[in-house]
């Protein structure tokens, strides 16, 4: 690992003004992504994971949004750039793949034109044969068969998995150093999901692009990432290496999330260790720790759980945000049957 | 030992599609379900698994005759649902009820919980108004909802609670069978586990039988006693959960199993996986012979000629494949026992 991270997010807050009140979608989120690393953000709906991703691309705009904190990409604060400067970085330094490939592609242009457009934005002087070669090469790289022929096809002529490959080709055509993938396989069937995850991993290894993978699926996290950020109610509740998160979770929410997943490893039936209740509304977040109403270890009346928001602190190999004393927490978590 | 609650016999559903401009006749057929037979025994759960477009939801809807089959029969406790008259059907329907995927669209937004749950009771004229209220409260309690919320509307509940309302409504007529079509796919992970636990509790206390339709093999493994794997309108492999998960021998089942991401960074990575190439072909024009042959790593010339029947080929459970994989999976489990990196 190098000393200066490729991406350093510090104290990122994003809030939206809505008719029902202010939604703090992302609250004091800080994390690093190093060059060539694969980092996963996992969380349920409303945890702030997608808003965080959009903030990195500066895609949350409009009068109703306020974003504070800093996002340093190679030491440059993206928040301080003009819209024009930001535009030059999108795609070249930092690129994004979205969940639904059909809405990420323009139905009226051939896929070759769309990949070419992404390339031309950053290579305005490129000549036609050069662009063509780049398009053919990048479509071939993501596994589109017969790219010379298929570049003339339109999005509707491809299946869901192939469309997602095209979106990935567009994102990678300028060799960005950071690729953000926001639920890239959620809309796909499981056999196709396996193909796309393999593709993302292969590209990451070949080109050394850092990947920030956002998903709700712990299986995807376990198989593809090196470091994991767990979000809940707009905040980071735990951050650790992928092994630590799955083997020694230090936050009660992470523990609950793992208990809710039916791993194929667990043969037999028996009831799942579900988390009671449902994820909180971001407009009416509970006071103190957002997870408190669902937490099995909550300290009760008058404890800091109900009054103060916990901040990230070191716990074993992880950093997690919980008021419980670290050794006490370890004891309690170890007492829960796996 | 066979106490069959549902028997499906050679069920077929073809949807006509496309119009010829001259003849007003359909020009093509979507073979959504193409000859499916199975038996669900009382008190058990049959998981039906497959990717989108494999016909699993259509099959589910045929069971309660929500749609008319093209051919084939469904027996509910020995009585033919497919041949039933309207009045017979009215008598049979309370015995088979449904829970659907999307708890947002399957509840009428203008109906309170009380109305949603009581509607089936009113249709079948089960109770007078005062007992009805009591029954609704009882059902709400049973599925883990606060009975004081009886007059609330769907938008006042979270996704998981709405799914509980859906389950309560399915229970309103004291059914014997519940067809659950992707009942947890739209829910957050932590809430999915709650609903699965609820369904298991209800099965244990009420002796329900489930047809559980899902694309997620993980969910099905947790809840199902028996499993049928579908591909392009056909069952390709079926058996007990252990047969299918531990002794899978159809190449498609194996590929499906190995495609599931495993929530364990040590065993999950580096395991050998069969990644299928390509996508599911169109059910408008399925491949000749074996429908899976275009994506099958083991396909041979013979597969294009003859369609494999769903029979036991020495695996101990039926498999529709000419060349089933018969090596015993290491340690009995295709996923866990793979080499650790």
What report would you give on this structure?
The complex is a heterodimer of chains A (338) and B (341). Chain A folds into two domains: 7-225, P-loop containing nucleotide triphosphate hydrolases (Rossmann fold, 3-Layer(aba) Sandwich); 232-335, no CATH class. Chain A has twelve helices and twelve strands. Chain A has helices at 49-56, 83-89, 101-104, 111-122, 128-141, 147-150, 160-172, 190-207, 218-224, 242-247, 252-260, 326-335, and strands at residues 7-18, 21-33, 38-42, 65-73, 76-77, 94-97, 178-182, 210-215, 227-232, 235-241, 313-315, 318-320. The longest helix of chain A is centred in the middle third of the chain and has 18 residues, at 190-207. Chain B is of the alpha/beta class and 341 residues long. Chain B has a domain at 246-341. Chain B has eleven helices and twelve strands. In chain B, the strands form three sheets. In chain B, strands 6-7-8-3-9-10 form a six-stranded mixed beta sheet, with helices on both faces. Chain B has a four-stranded antiparallel beta sheet with strand order 2-1-4-5. Chain B has a two-stranded antiparallel sheet with strand order 11-12.
Helix content of chain A: 25-40%
Mean pLDDT of chain B: 89
Distance between the termini of chain A: 32 Å
Question: Which of globular, elongated, flat, extended, rod-shaped describes the shape of chain A?
Answer: globular
Largest beta sheet of chain B: what is the strand line-up? Answer: 6-7-8-3-9-10
Total number of β-strand segments of chain A?
12
Q: Give me the CATH superfamily of the largest domain in chain A.
A: P-loop containing nucleotide triphosphate hydrolases
If helices are DSSP runs of H or I spanning 4 or more residues, what is the number of helices of chain B? Answer: 11
Strand count of chain B? 12
The CATH class of the largest domain in chain A is Alpha Beta
**Biggest sheet details of chain B:** 6 strands, mixed
> So how many helices of chain A?
12
Low-confidence stretches of chain B: 330-341
Mass-distribution shape of chain B: globular
**What portion of the residues of chain A fall into strands of 2 or more residues?**
15-25%
Share of β-strand residues of chain B: 15-25%
Which chains make the largest contact?
Answer: A-B, 49 and 50 residues
Tell me the Rg of chain A in angstroms: 21 Å
Provide the domain count of chain A: 2
Order of helices and strands of chain B: EEEHEEHEHHHEHEHEEHHHHEE
């Amino acid at each position: 690992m190098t000393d200066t991270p490729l991406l350093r997010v510090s104290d990122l807050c994003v809030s939206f003004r809505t008719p029902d009140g202010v939604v703090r979608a992302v609250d004091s989120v800080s994390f690093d992504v190093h060059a060539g690393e694969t980092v996963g953000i996992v969380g349920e709906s409303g945890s702030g994971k997608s808003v965080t991703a959009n903030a990195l691309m500066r895609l949350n705009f409009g009068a109703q949004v306020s974003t504070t904190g800093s996002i340093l990409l190679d030491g440059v604060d993206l928040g301080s750039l003009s819209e024009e400067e930001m535009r030059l970085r999108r795609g070249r330094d930092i690129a994004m793949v979205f969940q639904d490939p059909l809405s990420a592609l323009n139905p009226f242009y051939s896929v070759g034109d769309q990949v070419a457009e992404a390339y031309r934005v950053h290579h305005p002087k490129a000549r036609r044969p050069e662009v063509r070669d780049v398009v053919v090469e990048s479509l071939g790289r993501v596994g589109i068969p017969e790219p010379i022929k298929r570049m003339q096809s339109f999005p509707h002529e491809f299946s869901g998995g192939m469309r997602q490959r095209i979106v990935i080709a567009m994102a990678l055509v300028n060799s960005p150093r950071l690729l953000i993938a926001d639920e890239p396989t959620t809309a796909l069937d499981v056999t196709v999901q396996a193909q796309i995850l393999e593709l993302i991993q292969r590209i990451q290894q070949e080109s050394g692009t850092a990947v920030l993978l956002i998903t709700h699926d712990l299986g995807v996290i376990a198989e593809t990432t090196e470091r994991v950020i767990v979000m809940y109610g707009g905040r980071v509740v735990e951050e650790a290496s992928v092994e630590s998160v799955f083997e020694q979770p230090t936050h009660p929410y992470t523990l609950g999330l793992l208990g809710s997943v039916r791993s194929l490893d667990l043969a037999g039936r028996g009831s799942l260790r579900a988390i009671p209740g449902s994820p909180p509304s971001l407009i009416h977040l509970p006071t103190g720790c957002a997870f408190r109403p669902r937490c099995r270890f909550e300290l009760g009346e008058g404890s800091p759980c109900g009054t103060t928001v916990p901040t990230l602190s070191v716990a074993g190999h992880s950093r997690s945000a919980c008021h419980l004393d670290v050794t006490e927490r370890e004891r309690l978590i170890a007492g829960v049957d796996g | 030992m066979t106490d069959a609650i549902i028997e499906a016999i050679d069920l077929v559903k073809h949807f006509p599609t496309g119009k010829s401009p001259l003849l007003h006749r359909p020009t093509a057929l979507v073979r959504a379900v193409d000859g499916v037979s199975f038996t669900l025994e009382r008190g058990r759960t049959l998981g039906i698994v497959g990717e989108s477009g494999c016909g699993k939801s259509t099959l589910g809807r045929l069971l309660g005759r929500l749609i008319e089959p093209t051919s084939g029969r469904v027996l509910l406790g020995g009585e033919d649902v497919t041949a039933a008259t309207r009045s017979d059907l009215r008598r049979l329907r309370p015995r088979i009820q449904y829970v659907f995927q999307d708890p947002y669209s399957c509840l009428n937004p203008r109906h309170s919980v009380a109305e949603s749950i009581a509607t089936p009771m009113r249709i079948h004229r089960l109770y007078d108004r005062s007992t009805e209220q009591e029954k609704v409260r009882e059902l709400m309690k049973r599925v883990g909802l606060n009975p004081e919320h009886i007059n609330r509307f769907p938008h006042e509940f979270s996704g998981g609670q709405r799914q509980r309302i859906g389950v309560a409504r399915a229970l309103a007529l004291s059914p014997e069978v519940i067809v659950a079509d992707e009942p947890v796919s739209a829910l957050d992970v932590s809430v999915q586990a709650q609903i699965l636990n609820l369904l298991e509790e209800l099965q244990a206390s009420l002796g329900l039988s489930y047809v559980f339709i899902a694309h997620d093999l993980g969910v099905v493994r947790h809840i199902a006693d028996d499993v049928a794997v579908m591909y392009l309108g056909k069952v390709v492999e079926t058996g007990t959960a252990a047969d299918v998960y531990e002794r899978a021998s159809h190449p498609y089942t194996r590929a499906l199993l190995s495609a599931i991401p495993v929530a364990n960074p040590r065993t999950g990575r580096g395991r050998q996986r069969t990644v299928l190439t390509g996508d599911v072909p169109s059910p408008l024009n399925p491949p000749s012979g074996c429908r899976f042959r275009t994506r099958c790593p083991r396909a041979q010339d013979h597969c294009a000629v003859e369609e494999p029947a769903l029979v036991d080929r020495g695996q101990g459970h039926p498999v529709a494949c000419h060349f089933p994989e018969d090596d015993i999976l290491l340690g009995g489990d295709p996923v866990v026992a793979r080499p650790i990196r």
